[in-house]
Structures are given as C-alpha cells and as structure tokens.
Automatic annotation (TrEMBL):
<dbReference type="GO" id="GO:0051209">
    <property type="term" value="P:release of sequestered calcium ion into cytosol"/>
</dbReference>
<dbReference type="InterPro" id="IPR035892">
    <property type="entry name" value="C2_domain_sf"/>
</dbReference>
<feature type="domain" description="PI-PLC Y-box">
    <location>
        <begin position="2"/>
        <end position="50"/>
    </location>
</feature>
<dbReference type="InterPro" id="IPR017946">
    <property type="entry name" value="PLC-like_Pdiesterase_TIM-brl"/>
</dbReference>
<dbReference type="GO" id="GO:0048015">
    <property type="term" value="P:phosphatidylinositol-mediated signaling"/>
</dbReference>
<protein>
    <recommendedName>
        <fullName>PI-PLC Y-box domain-containing protein</fullName>
    </recommendedName>
</protein>
<dbReference type="GO" id="GO:0006629">
    <property type="term" value="P:lipid metabolic process"/>
</dbReference>
<dbReference type="Pfam" id="PF00387">
    <property type="entry name" value="PI-PLC-Y"/>
</dbReference>
<dbReference type="GO" id="GO:0004435">
    <property type="term" value="F:phosphatidylinositol-4,5-bisphosphate phospholipase C activity"/>
</dbReference>
<dbReference type="InterPro" id="IPR001711">
    <property type="entry name" value="PLipase_C_Pinositol-sp_Y"/>
</dbReference>
<dbReference type="InterPro" id="IPR001192">
    <property type="entry name" value="PI-PLC_fam"/>
</dbReference>
C-alpha cells in the first residue's frame, strides 16, 4: 500500500479536491478526516486565500498552544495491540503539532501580487513533537484498556489556519512500537479551555469506542 503525501500542501496552493489512498490510515488520511469530519463535505479556505486580491502572510502572528494543562490525559477502551486481548502492555502518548511558516519572501507578479502557488512554495513544514512516559495498562476483553498520564506539554508556533495537532497512543515494546489509537484535528477547530472527551480511531481508522480526556489551551503571545 502506498503512503499519502501531506494534503495541506495542496490545500495551501488552492486545490479544491485532494485525492488520497484510503487503503492506509496514515497522517494524510487522518488530516483529511480531521478537516472534514462533522462538516457538509466542504470547509472555507484560509482567510488570506479568500481575500479578493491580497495574500497577507501576517495573519495573527505567533501563538502558543498548551495541551492537558495541570491534569491528566486519560485514554479509555484502548484496543489490544496486535490482537493480544486480555494481556497488559506498556503504553505512552505522543503528540505532534505540524504547520507551515514562511522562510523566504515569495516572488511577486507584475502587479505586485503574490499567487497562491508562490505562497505555498515559500513555506517550510515544521513538526513539533512530545512524548509522555510509558505506563503499564491492563487490557480486559470486554472493556479494553484504560490509561492515565498526569503530564503536560506546551509548544510555541506561528499562527497557521492549516496547523494540525495529532494525538497518538503507542504500545512501548522492544523494536518498533505499534500505534494503538489516533486523534487528529486542525488547531483552529479545537475547543479551548474545557475538558473534552475526544474520539480516537484504531490503527485501521475504525471507531472502536476509544476516547481520551484532554484539555487544550491557546494563548496569543
């Protein structure tokens, strides 16, 4: 199965539809689902792309996002890694924030305007990552596994309407760790300042009842 490219690169250049290979539940498919789930099948482009002429890069400046502040991130009904039902395993949370920022001023056209394509090619991809400690959880055949991580994390990044946050739970094992559950959403669509129960999908993109209790906060710098 082939992997998907980052669809946000094409959304930033003005593409209306981005084709994805749904055989693999990778980051590209997760971003697409996070952007469109709960909508009528379409979302507005970023504000700078909706302006009649200008494409202003300065759209909000810098900001910081902090997640799960001063309390617990709790995952419930975690599926058994590799089908090992009823056995305990070590698990940890990994979070990612990925966005794009301008590195070189894009070339302007004869009238001084900047095209969407020129804007997209002047950006670099930035990924910020954090990993929790591993804890031991016990899996129950009927209820799944529950885990509580009393940790916080914080990032600073440049405001980007197509910035995404990804929340993953992995089994900690010898060799390559197996992904157990995933949540992915644009930062702009997160509910801030409240404890939320969010849905996590399994490694194949199926809803098996796994949830996480998390809290997101956004602060302008």
């Amino acid at each position: 199965m082939s992997s998907n490219l980052d669809p946000s690169k094409f959304w930033r250049s003005g593409s209306q539809v981005v084709s994805l290979n749904w055989q693999k539940y990778d980051k590209g498919v997760q971003m697409n689902e996070g952007l469109f789930v709960g909508t009528h099948g379409w979302v507005l482009k970023p504000e700078h792309m909706r302006k009649k002429r200008g494409l202003d890069f300065d759209d909000g400046g810098a900001c910081a996002i902090s997640t799960a502040a001063q309390a617990q991130a709790e995952g419930t009904c975690l599926p058994a890694p590799n089908g090992r039902t009823g056995k305990s395993f070590e698990a940890y949370i990994r979070t990612e924030l990925f966005y794009h920022r301008e590195v070189n001023p894009p070339p302007t056209e004869g009238d001084g305007e900047v095209s969407a394509v020129a804007k997209s090619t002047s950006l670099e991809n930035v990924a910020l990552r954090w990993k929790s400690k591993s804890i031991k959880v016990g899996h129950h055949p009927e209820d799944g596994a529950d885990g509580v991580w009393n940790e916080t994390w914080e990032w600073e990044y440049e405001r980007d309407e197509l910035a995404f946050i990804r929340f993953l739970i992995y089994e900690d094992e010898f060799g390559k760790d197996d992904r157990v559950s995933t949540f992915c959403s644009p930062v702009e669509r997160l509910v801030m300042g409240e404890w939320l129960v969010v849905r996590l999908m399994d490694r194949k993109g199926k809803d098996v009842g796994t949830t996480a209790l998390v809290k997101f906060e956004l602060e302008e710098l």
